[in-house]
Design brief:
Elements: H1 2-36, H2 41-54, H3 62-154, E1 158-162, H4 172-184, E2 191-197, E3 207-212, H5 215-228, E4 235-238, H6 242-250, H7 252-260, E5 266-268, E6 271-274, E7 277-278
Antiparallel strand pairs: 1-3, 1-4, 2-3, 5-6, 6-7
Length: 302
């Protein structure tokens, strides 16, 4: 009886070793089948895992291996179809996008061509308008000069008396006659008209605007105004146009500096002048001709 038990135990151990060898053989076959297929790594790993889990019992045979190979090939085919389907959809979308982009580019190109065709005439028109604008500006400047000359001529017999306080019921002609007779010894001067001009400023009375009949009388008054009214509270200035007045005030600071350096200027006919010629203020004041022996005149505010 003990001898039989030993035989039975030996037989059981032999069967266990045979089953393990068969199982190892089946695993090797599956691994070779998986490796022989040209599969992506992630597919191979998944199939291998599923194969290990789904490995039949050691009593399986070659049929199981064929079924597994068939399942693998089917999975590969399905995967390839899905990839191809995705790629087809992607290519189709790209083709549609390319078509839309081409249409958009053609549309924008046509618009650019249209705009470029309009630029040429617009440039020509713009140049024409600029030329017209320059011509009009030149004409306006010329008209301003001519108008200023006309206005200057209309004022050629005028002068202004500044600093005489205004009183109620005053007679400007009597005031002008009195000043001319008393300080200029011009008793027979004919005054065409005279009146207050403007509203005055800084609590100062408006100027008395005087127009005499003779231009010679006006010149005599202007030549002797400073000396004749030297110690009086009033003074006389020329009746300048607005343009001439702005030109006079424009150079007032430079004229004062020239006066301090002994250069005497006078303003008439729209310009500061020296010896009858318009003075060029572009020259440096400190390099101007000096004339310290000659008395200089004050620069009036008007």
């Amino acid at each position: 009886m003990p001898h039989n038990k030993d035989r039975k135990g030996s037989k059981t151990r032999n069967m266990s070793r045979q089953e393990k060898a068969k199982s190892s053989t089946d695993d090797t076959a599956v691994s070779m089948a998986l490796n022989s297929a040209d599969l992506p790594v992630f597919v191979t790993s998944e199939l291998a895992a599923s194969t290990v889990l789904a490995t039949p019992s050691p009593v399986g045979d070659a049929t199981t291996l064929k079924q597994l190979q068939s399942h693998v090939q089917s999975s590969i085919s399905d995967f390839q179809k899905q990839v191809q389907k995705t790629l087809d959809a992607l290519f189709k979308g790209m083709k549609k996008l390319e078509t839309e982009l081409n249409k958009s580019i053609e549309f924008q190109s046509s618009r650019i061509d249209s705009l470029e065709s309009q630029v040429g005439p617009l440039k020509a028109e713009n140049k024409h308008l600029r030329d017209e604008d320059d011509d009009l500006k030149q004409q306006v400047k010329l008209h301003d000069v001519l108008i200023n000359k006309q206005e200057r001529f209309s004022r050629r017999n005028n002068f202004r008396i500044v600093g005489v306080p205004a009183t109620q019921d005053e007679d400007c002609i009597e005031i002008a006659d009195s000043i001319l007779a008393t300080h200029f010894e011009m008793d027979n001067t004919t005054i065409e008209r005279t009146h207050r001009d403007g509203r005055g400023s800084n609590n100062k009375s408006p100027h008395i605007l005087v127009k005499v009949l003779s231009y010679r009388d006006k010149i005599r008054v202007m030549q002797n105004a400073k000396s004749s009214l030297k110690h009086q509270n009033c003074y006389i200035v020329d009746d300048l146009t607005r343009a001439d007045l702005l030109e006079k005030r424009r150079w007032a600071t430079q004229v004062k500096e020239l006066y301090n350096n002994g250069v005497k200027l006078s303003f008439y006919a729209g310009n500061w002048r020296k010896n009858g010629q318009p003075y060029q203020f572009s020259r440096a004041v400190n390099h101007a001709e000096s004339n310290t022996s000659a008395p200089a005149s004050n620069v009036s505010s008007r």
